# Entry
Amino acid sequence: MIQDHLAALQVVLPLLAAPLCFLLARQRLLAWLLTTLVSWGCLAISLALWWQVRDGDVIHYAFGGWDAPWGIEYVVDRLNVLVLVIVSGIAAITFPAARCSVEKEVPEDRQGLLYTALLLCLAGLLGITITGDAFNLFVLLEISSLSSYTLISLGRDRRALTASFQYLVMGTIGATFILIGVGILYMLTGTLNMADLAVRLPALGESRAMQTAFGFLIIGVGLKLAMFPLHLWLPNAYAYAPSIVSAFMAATATKVAVYVMVRYLFTIFGPAFSFTEMHVQLLFIPVGLIAVVFTSIVALFQHDIKRMLAYSSVAQIGYMLVGIGLVNVSGLTAALLHVFNHALMKGALFLALGATCYRIGAPLIDNLRGLGKQMPWTMAAFVGGGLSLIGVPLTAGFISKWYLILAAVERGWWPVVVIVVISSLIAVIYIWRVVEAAYLQERPDDAATVTEAPLALLVPTWILVLANFWFGVNPGALTALAGDAASVLFGGYTW
Amino acid sequence: MLSMTAIAVVRLRSLFGVVMLFGIYSLLSALIFVVLDAIDVAFTEAAVGAGVSTVFMLATLVSTGREEKPSRYSPLLPLGVVVVTGAALVWGTLDMPHFGDPGNPVHVHVADRYVQVSPTEVGIPNMVTSVLASYRGYDTMGEVIVIFTALVGVLSLLTIRGHVTVPRHRTTGPDSRPYPVLQVMAMLLIPFILVFALYVQFHGDFGPGGGFQAGVIFASAIILYALTFGLNDAVALVPVWLIRVLAAAGVLIYGGTGVVSMLRGANYLDYDVLAHDPVHGQHYGILIIELGVGITVATVMIGIFFAFVSRAEGSR
# Structure
């Protein structure tokens, strides 16, 4: 019986655990325990869903027993199960580490609220991914956004408040644009169900209202995924949030937005409309390439390592946009793989930084000097994540960049290949800055002697680092899944 | 008038005036919704937009000051963005389906079933309630959780203080004078507001209304009490722990209904299985979830108001 309800439970479990956690807020240990157990439950559910759809089956779940399009349905296919697994997987790895880090960074009376917000954010992100209804997506987007603003504002630095407010303003504009887009689509078709929209939209023929809706949705989702130059909210948000929040959000939030973009472009509007009629690739390729180069260079000049990684995230999203903009199956495969792999590498890097913050406070590059000897495991984890970020062979980062380059070669767009390689070299430089500070410089005499971070932080960090290498050496199952999902999305369309 | 109000909001430097204009703006929008025959939406807009959010903004003004600071940024870029967005909307909606045409896709596709079959399937006269509580009940649960999240957000930034910091019924000092006329008026009004809230809550099946509006109206009664009698008395009436428990309980009532349907072998939030007869089950289901909505909305509104006022009093 329970396997029939897995799709609903995937979201309902964390959604209803949140008010429970809110009631337990005074008992910090219990609140954390509940959060952790729920995140493990979510991972188990998403793995079970992966097992159910591995052969290309699609699961439909009708809420309230009302069939779509009258009611709301959840749909699980091979595309979104990939995102479900990565979101719940990152949650299951970062939430156990939360207690240690949060005890240090967040006032006691706010910790229960932080765990509540984490659960809400997880539920929102999973819900956006799993839903088959365009308006339900908006509702869950609101849940995840509101809880993200809360999570960011809990940062230790007072600048976290400004960062959170900036994100709130930009995020609300993005959400409004998405709502306008969905509203126009409803006006044109009378339905909110994604599959139903996909059937009814092409029948409209050429429609200016539909083109406007497309524009609003691209910009709205673009704000959410920090598409250059709409990324301005992201660096501060990730830099000043509590460490564990940065790790969770950097690894999941923008990835889910990329998924939403893919869902709209391919499933709802269809590749023929998106690429032949609206030429969205003419936007994605330049924007993606500028993001890749420009924000990588900006990352070079950051003193705060968290900010540096945040800028690097914008660059990584550039790769995903380029992958989509190449308009071929291998490009989309690369984008999907990078969604998964980037979550692994950024999760590992931000968690390693969280472990550093636990001992030294602010992660400024000057504070890291000589830390390689005093915190060998933490720094080694950072280097491991960094190698994957650069895209060194045998790491997960290499796989997705390799597919991206193959896709560009297939198109014959050599400049794209060159830019991808150049930006990887820039990544070498900014990771090297940290390595140089940590290993080649002496610890200043006036700096306090620190010891290795506690195991509660190290173990999750290393799980993610090892996952980077595991998926770098054994990419088979993952690339097959992403490749199948990509070819289903294109459905034989070529540009 | 709507656009004139909007322009006035942008031009005005007095924040107090801006808040008042926002209230007018919401009332005007509510009127437009009435003209469009969307009574439920108009009701919500009037209660939430013109009512509670105006009070929230006023409470914020107490701690921020009444005048807008001169902006450091040039207004040209935002103006450009707004003009482009507006132009895109106008351009894009020129070929939209004609308003009021019965052949519009909005009327003939999904909504057709809501209009034709919902009185027999769901069994209640107000179709808006059928759609939001049953057909799209999961969305409504999401909205309740959005409101709950707002409380989590506010509490993580502001603390509700209200007990024992100031002696109750203090009679000295300039700003602690009791306002006898206001207090008597409030005592007369509050019972009626509470009864009206309950009416809106339970009449939502038949006429415009439901948990959202009722919750806001209920909260406004408590807020009125807090305004006239002071925060300390209001917190004594509705303690902070009660706000926390009820806000979570409302969500759990709603979500728990879904879990019960699941345990009875149907899909999440399928009310058919809640009673022997599907239509009765729908009745029970809608009644219960609307109650959950009302409880959460009311307590969250009260909680947010208390938090804002605590902040304002703390900064004084």
